[in-house]
Amino acid sequence: MSRGDNGFFEVRIYPLKQNLIGNTYKFMNNVNTFQKETGMNIIGHFPDQDAGKYIWMRNYPNQAALDQRYRATYDSAVWKSGKLRGGITETGLAGSNVFLATATKYSMLQSPYVAKPESAMPGKEAKELAKLYAASADGDVPACGRCGSNPFIFEVTLHEVKPGMMDSYVTHMGENVFRPQEAKGIRVFAQLVAYAKVTSLSNGGTFVPENGTFISIRLFADEATRRKQEMAVGEDKEAVAKAAQAAGRAGLNTIVFSGHPSFYSQMQQ
């Protein structure tokens, strides 16, 4: 686990039951508040309701800090009591896919992560939802539909990379793919290389080495902006995919999630 000794990121992707999003927000809002108290550096929460995924990220300076924060959080009386569920039995979350990853030299996101004040400014809707949830009693789930309509897109892409070709792939993506995109105004937030997966979360976490996943994150103001900026880049998608495969991608396709900030997310725009 030594690859994360100079700072790393934790990318968590949970299966999400879309029909229980109100329950999920009640639980994760409480989790978010509590974990900030235990020292977690949380970047934000970005559910992709259309894909049925709940995405959130945290940052740690080193493995020792992760171990300490895990203990402070998951070994605590508050966590074990189930109090954070807010009186509900079904949180709408089942299972997890958790990566520990370091930033490449091309990544705008580097450790330590410090939120920019302007990115954390909640809109009117987020403030109203925060009040609605704060006023809800234990066992009561506010009726809020999709619980927010922030158009901001936190696009997470998982790239499977062939064994032994991660360095080649990192260079290719950083120099040949994302640099031209950035020149056209696309906000390429993060370029990360996973070095471990975390399993057995209910037992404090077991760390399993991982060496075949590259994670990229792009930010867009909304879907119209994403389409406009991607058109401006003018990429031949088939040629781009084949070049990526030659550089090390395992197959032509990637897994893409388009998350939107929850009302309690530290990053809102």
Protein architecture, described:
The chain has helices at 21-37, 63-74, 77-81, 124-134, 166-183, 223-233, 237-247, and strands at 8-15, 41-48, 53-60, 97-103, 153-160, 187-199, 206-209, 213-220, 255-259. The protein is α+β, with helices and mostly antiparallel strands. It has a single domain (2-141, 151-259), classed as Alpha-Beta Plaits (2-Layer Sandwich).
Order of helices and strands: EHEEHHEHEHEEEHHE
Domains, number: 1
* CATH top level label: Alpha Beta
Distance between the termini: 32 Å
| CATH domain fold name | Alpha-Beta Plaits
Radius of gyration: 19 Å
What's the β-strand tally?
Answer: 9
Q: What fraction strand?
A: 25-35%
Give the helix/strand class: alpha+beta
CATH architecture: 2-Layer Sandwich
Largest sheet: 9 strands, antiparallel
Rounded average pLDDT: 94
Shape, per Cα inertia axes: globular
* Low-confidence runs: none
Number of helical elements: 7
Proportion of residues in helical segments: 25-40%
